[in-house]
């Protein structure tokens, strides 16, 4: 009774208060709806420390500054004070980063988060975030505080960050954009799109890599805006003094990555997002593709022509016409009555078979893949719980939700039949995802997103990445200890952990050859080094000159594949006549000769996080004029090339970086740090080797592993001073290298005016099949009087081309020639 009396008394008080306040009840009690407008951070009022992160607040919004390493600091914004779940598809799961030291220092005007390499300054007056080096030089700074705007249609916020753009700052990265290397003055959007026959400066394209590198006053930094929604970047386009990036949803979350060298920024970015797996050796050979090689007789005819003409080739591709009515994981038995035998016969001739798989699964109750997916509810659904359906090659299709681990596991098992048939690699296409008539999925499609859930607005840009992840993981299980080979058209940051990429449906024009040169350099510094173009152009008709010049560039593309549409003329190396065939053959053979160097460069990418293709800007960022150079790039550390990009071009100006360089075909020595006029006859492309390099080569083979070699050739290019080189060898197709079953040889070349010394040491447990090096010296400025190996004087020999060489046991420690 006492409690009841209290309640009645409380109610009476309320009635009295309401009557006194003269409250009138209305249908809508909310009298003042706040306007939707951009809101900015206020002044930071306090902070708390939680482990290696500091959380600042202005009283409502919160900003997290997390120290990942001495060079990597993440900044996150929570407009209402609550951060989203800390999850990313881009960041490695096994990320193990620890700063050597960090601390927060408070001054009168700022909070300073310090590491051994960088200072993150949070200004008390306006909440601007500024990054400085340890000498106090500003490297990157907010132009205005981070800001946001409520998204009333979908929930969440549009989030914005605006940085200062220094007067001469240059910007690089952002994936496969078809623009100049330096992005300054341009605005871009990230929304994976099927862009058939895209043009120069067309945007967006197939991939989303929200990572860029800024270079100002010779110092570099990186920004990785890890947000999977549609994102935008403005590099001093709207206003010359500022750079902005923003998103239509998700969180303002970015990583500041300190250099000061561009290559260090790329390496730190790989620390976060991972490197490429080591590919099987055959995957970096020459590949032949067309939409489509069918029926079986056509496939056999093409492959037999390669062997008949003795043009090396490692892989043949089957596009969607190999399927039964474009149903994935099936064979058209009319075109391919016995695929297992065909693939076995091709393998006996040294050809690996790669097949295409798309995400669209035909709606067909008699189709086993569709039945399994439907029964297990593996397909994407709309907001009102209808299955998402769209039209692609098979007709009406449903699409797996690859953001669900159960779906990825199931998808991986679907490759069992293809693997049992002998298929060696898989090509994932149409995975932006592309849908005929509407471009992609509707925004209300729901995704599991590892349990964090989201609409297609959130999952669109990672759909292709998660598809090829499913493919890679499935193949890895099914192929036992063999390395999978996968290739994907759509990608997000971190896709390099699962796949190689290509630039999509280009056009057979000289402009597109130039675009390809730009795209592959940009992809490489954006984390996707295992990249290539459709050599010769996917659509359109190249003439023999364009096709051949593109083939020459293809030799120095990490992924080398000819591909074309079915309504174009044939694109095999012999299709343009004997003159062009001979040149194409010469350059494909060059690719196979350089395979040990290329493979070693892939190892440097995998283990040491180095980009495979390196623009001149990355090599010499301290020279302002080099930030605009686009036509020269290094393949690894020791080889530099400059593709011929214009019809009828008989010579071109080539810039060589500092040091000395040898012309590959002529062995002529050129001074670096300047431009040179280089002749470009049709059967040559400007190729240079850094003086002091050790370049390993193989004899020409028709396919990788065609025969064992009894000696590895080492071409050693003389130079004054010291240069380091590496040669990497392993089984070529297993994961034994993860248990140190590999051979990584380190060579130190030290040149003097009258002598040259080569020292060697080795890591790893692998024992190569050869016992001997054949060493060829290029550019020696003195007559050879004596060569001594580990204290023993040896004699030289002459090869079949009358060239002198020295046969040396592979375990030598020190060799001196004088």
UniProtKB/TrEMBL annotation:
Domain (DUF5110): residue spans on this chain: 712-779
Glycoside hydrolase family 31 TIM barrel domain boundaries: 277-600
Glycoside hydrolase family 31 N-terminal domain location: 63-234
The entry's keywords: Glycosidase, Hydrolase
SUPFAM superfamilies per the UniProt record, alphabetical: (Trans)glycosidases, Galactose mutarotase-like, Glycosyl hydrolase domain
Residues covered by the Glycosyl hydrolase family 31 C-terminal domain: 610-695
Family: Belongs to the glycosyl hydrolase 31 family.
Annotated PANTHER family: ALPHA-GLUCOSIDASE
Record protein name field: Alpha-glucosidase
Organism: Sphingobacterium griseoflavum
């Amino acid at each position: 009774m006492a409690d009841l009396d209290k309640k009645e008394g409380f109610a009476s008080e309320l009635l009295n208060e309401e009557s006194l306040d003269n409250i009138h009840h209305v249908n809508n009690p909310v009298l003042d709806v706040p306007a939707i407008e951009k809101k900015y951070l206020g002044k930071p009022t306090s902070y708390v420390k939680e482990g290696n992160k500091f959380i600042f607040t202005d009283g409502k919004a919160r900003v997290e500054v997390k120290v990942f390493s001495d060079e990597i600091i993440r900044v996150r914004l929570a407009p209402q004070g609550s951060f989203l779940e800390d999850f990313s598809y881009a960041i490695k799961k096994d990320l193990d980063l620890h700063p050597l030291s960090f601390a927060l220092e408070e001054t009168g005007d700022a909070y300073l988060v310090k590491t051994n390499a960088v200072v993150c300054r949070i200004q008390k007056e306006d909440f601007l975030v500024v990054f400085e080096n340890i000498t106090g030089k500003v490297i990157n700074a907010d132009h205005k505080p981070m800001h946001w705007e409520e998204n009333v249609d979908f929930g969440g916020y549009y989030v914005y960050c605006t940085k200062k753009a220094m007067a001469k700052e240059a910007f690089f990265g952002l994936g496969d954009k078809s623009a100049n290397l330096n992005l300054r003055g341009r605005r871009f959007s990230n929304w994976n799109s099927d862009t058939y026959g895209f043009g120069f400066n067309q945007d967006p394209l197939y991939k989303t890599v929200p990572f860029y590198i800024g270079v100002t006053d010779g110092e570099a930094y990186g920004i990785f805006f890890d947000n999977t929604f549609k994102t935008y970047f403005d590099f001093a386009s709207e206003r010359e003094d500022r750079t902005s990036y923003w998103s239509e949803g998700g969180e303002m979350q970015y990583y500041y990555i300190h250099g000061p060298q561009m290559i260090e920024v790329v390496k730190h970015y790989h620390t976060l997002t991972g490197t490429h797996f080591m590919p099987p050796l055959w995957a970096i050979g020459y590949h032949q593709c067309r939409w489509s090689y069918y029926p079986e007789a056509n496939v056999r005819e093409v492959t037999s022509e390669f062997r008949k003409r003795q043009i090396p080739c490692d892989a043949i591709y089957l596009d969607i016409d190999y399927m039964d009515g474009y149903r994935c994981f099936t064979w058209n038995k009319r075109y391919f009555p016995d695929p297992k035998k065909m693939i076995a016969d091709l393998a006996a001739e040294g050809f690996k078979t790669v097949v295409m798989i798309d995400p669209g699964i035909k709606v067909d109750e008699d189709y086993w893949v569709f039945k399994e997916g439907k029964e297990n509810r593996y397909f994407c659904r709309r907001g009102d719980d209808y299955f998402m359906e769209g039209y692609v090659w098979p007709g009406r299709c449903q699409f797996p939700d690859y953001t669900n681990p159960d779906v990825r596991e199931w998808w991986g098992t679907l490759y069992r039949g293809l693997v049992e048939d002998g298929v060696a690699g898989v090509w994932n296409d149409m995975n932006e995802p592309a849908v005929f008539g509407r471009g992609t999925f509707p925004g209300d499609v729901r995704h599991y997103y590892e349990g964090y859930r989201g609409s297609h607005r959130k999952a669109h840009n990672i759909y292709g990445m998660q598809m090829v992840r499913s493919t890679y993981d499935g193949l890895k299980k099914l192929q036992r200890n063999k390395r999978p080979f996968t290739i994907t058209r759509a990608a997000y940051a971190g896709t390099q952990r699962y796949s190689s990429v290509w630039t999509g449906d280009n056009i057979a024009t000289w402009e597109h050859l130039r675009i390809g040169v730009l795209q592959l350099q940009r992809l490489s510094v954006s984390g996707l080094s295992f990249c290539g173009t459709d050599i010769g152009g996917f659509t359109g008709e190249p003439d023999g000159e364009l096709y051949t010049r593109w083939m020459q560039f293809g030799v120095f593309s990490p992924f080398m594949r000819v591909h074309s549409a079915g309504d174009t003329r044939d694109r095999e190396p012999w299709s343009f006549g004997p003159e062009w065939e001979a040149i194409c053959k010469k350059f494909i053979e060059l690719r196979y000769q350089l395979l040990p160097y290329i493979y070693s460069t892939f190892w440097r990418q995998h283990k040491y996080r180095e980009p495979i293709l390196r623009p001149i800007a990355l090599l010499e960022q301290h020279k302002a004029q080099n930030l605009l150079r686009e036509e020269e790039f290094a393949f690894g550390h020791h080889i530099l090339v400059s593709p011929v990009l214009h019809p009828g071009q008989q010579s071109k100006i080539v810039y060589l970086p500092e040091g000395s360089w040898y012309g590959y075909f002529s062995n002529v020595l050129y001074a670096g740090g300047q431009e040179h006029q280089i002749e470009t006859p049709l059967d040559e492309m400007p190729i240079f080797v850094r003086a002091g390099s050790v370049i390993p080569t193989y004899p020409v083979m028709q396919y990788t592993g065609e025969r064992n070699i009894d000696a590895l050739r080492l071409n050693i290019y003389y130079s004054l001073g010291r240069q380091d080189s590496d040669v990497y060898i392993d089984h070529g197709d297993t994961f034994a290298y993860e248990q140190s079953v590999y051979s990584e040889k380190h060579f130190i070349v030290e040149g003097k005016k009258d002598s040259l010394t080569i020292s060697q040491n080795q890591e790893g447990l692998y024992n190569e099949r050869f016992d001997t090096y054949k060493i060829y010296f290029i550019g020696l400025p003195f007559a050879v009087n004596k060569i001594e190996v580990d204290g023993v004087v040896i004699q030289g020999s002459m090869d079949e081309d009358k060239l002198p060489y020295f046969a040396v046991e592979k375990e030598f420690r020190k060799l001196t020639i004088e």
